[in-house]
Amino acid sequence: MNYSWDEIYLLIQRADQLDAGGRLTIFEFLAQTLSLIPLRDGFPTPAEIEECGSLAKAAKKYKGPVEKGWERWCQEKRPFIRANCSTDRAGVACGPASGVLVLDVDDMGRFWEVLKFNSIEQTLPPTFAVKTGGRGDRYHYYFKYPTDGKKYSNRSKAGCFDVRGVGGQVICPGSLHPETTKPYLVATNENILDAPEWLLEYASRSREIFTEEEPESTSRKSFSNTTRADTSDIELSETISGEMDFFIANLPVSDDVKQKIMTQYVHGTRSEASWSVLLGLLNAKVDEKAIRHIYDHYPIGDKSRQKPEWFEREIERAKNLIAQNQIGVNMQSGFLSGANNSSLNEEYGFLNGLDVLNSPQNFEFIIDNFWPKNEPLLITGPGGSGKSVMTLQIAMDLVFPPQQGLLDRFQVMSSEHKVMFVQSENSLVGLKRRMEIIAKTYAIPPDVIRDKLLFFGKKGDVRSSGDINDDKLKHPLERIHGQTNFDILILDPLISFHDQDENSNDAMRRFLDKFFDFCDNLKVTPLMIHHHGKFRAEKGIGGGRGASAIGDWSANTWELEFVEERKDKDGNLKHVAHYLFTQKKARSYESNLKMMLQMKDLRFYPMGSSPAVGKTARMDGKMAIVVDALQALGGTASTQKQLKDTIIEIYKKKKPNDIPSEGTAGNDIKRAVKEGVIKEVTGPSGSKTYTF
């Protein structure tokens, strides 16, 4: 971005006077160093205030992250995607990804009293600090997150201060408070400094801090470094020392359950998380004494400590559920451990509906709202439509995610992937040429290309063919998987890697089921390219030629095709030349709208956002919606009224609290034309149309 910190600082100090684009500029700048996460947009409505009983309670919902599983962005930096960021506020995911540990002080006077009571020097280092937009003098003090290998998580001293580390977030400077509408301002414009020792000890749970109102703990015994087998003999202490994290790390539960134990959830989300953790612990046969201690002292027990009677009912309900269906419990235990080949799992049993709902397994995306983990992805299209180029782009974005996401829309959830290509059509020389062209506009570090992009082949080439289910291909892939641990497997194209009758539903379904079993055993997620036939009628909802079983088997199917420019009989442009990317099937989530794409340097971009179009690199949220509306109309709006109506419909779906008037939508269109985001075209008859 062409901004300095001094310029951004001045914008932050008048954030309440800025339009949405101005605040997005602040967030985009901060996201260069901090891991920013989307928070809910807007402010409480009168109906919400009435429902919650007060403005303060209604406003709390607007402070929370909108993404499930947002805690991951405490450990890895989240790519900033301008289009899906709230224009009113954003959150800083605290921890290693942002490199910050934040001290959140609600009452400065009481804070100094607590430090004095605990014989702690009543000063703080002159570090970067933010005055919140809330009522009273409330501050966020930013400190460097240590790189000593220890975990510094969330802790709270009610009514006084909170520490936000791994699993925590704070609203970032430049945001508007959802209750007061006041901005979060920079209070101390200094460098971020090291945290004081007492704060690190408190955040790592190696010391406790007390107030005058609460008696000092009579027991400070810590957990010894024991394994899970010893937990029933542990004398549970009243305080949690640093070794407790070792204890949690060695529980026989999924990482998801462990993360939930360490996460403090906002009101309205605590019950669901608590129930999930409780089932996970009981299913894993963790001693009840240890479970109660976890709920007494860790963030997951926030509600149980406030409502002990409710927690007793929850424990009994969970015990009864488990006792009613031991087969379901055993199967869920298998899910927890990730085992698929145990003798237990080889025996068929059953799960009832409640078992399914309470399973500790969670639905995850590899690429958000585009490709779910452990579900095959099928990309179809006519020959020459760019399917292999699209697949290479997906692979590159998986190992080196672009800031705006795949196709400027779909967020790549993690860069920790290794992709194995098994393909038959592109030679070593041809592939090298493709990657050289792509590097002109999207350069990937050499170590990432070396370690994370892998190409299967022999005799110095990157091509192969044969039955993927045959041992001649399976065994080498299994061996290489053992060496590299790749987690994505790409077949390009499908027809080169089977010897079945492609028109036989029975043969193709059995082949695909067997192939997916192979992938499942390796714990890899497959992507396949499948061609259309010679005739356009051969494509359908399943995608591609041959047996319909191919499309039925695929959980996620996208179709890519090239659409030529068209004009009407009077010479008016109906639509520009483009690539059309259409989701034909989404088994486990809502399908996406069609995307109109253009290609530059062998990478696809949404129409209007190619690197060749400089203005759109700085599009704000309103301009992005104008682009979405024009794309929804196929790239051409025959009248301004048609485009305005489509813009308003998109607001109704995406931002129901910010629906513009027709006049405002018209002004947004005019600004989009002025800034070069879209074009206004005057036809021979004087009529005006809009296109890219």
TrEMBL record:
<feature type="domain" description="DNA primase/polymerase bifunctional N-terminal">
    <location>
        <begin position="27"/>
        <end position="199"/>
    </location>
</feature>
<dbReference type="InterPro" id="IPR015330">
    <property type="entry name" value="DNA_primase/pol_bifunc_N"/>
</dbReference>
<dbReference type="Pfam" id="PF13481">
    <property type="entry name" value="AAA_25"/>
</dbReference>
<protein>
    <submittedName>
        <fullName>Recombinase RecA</fullName>
    </submittedName>
</protein>
<dbReference type="InterPro" id="IPR027417">
    <property type="entry name" value="P-loop_NTPase"/>
</dbReference>
<dbReference type="Pfam" id="PF09250">
    <property type="entry name" value="Prim-Pol"/>
</dbReference>
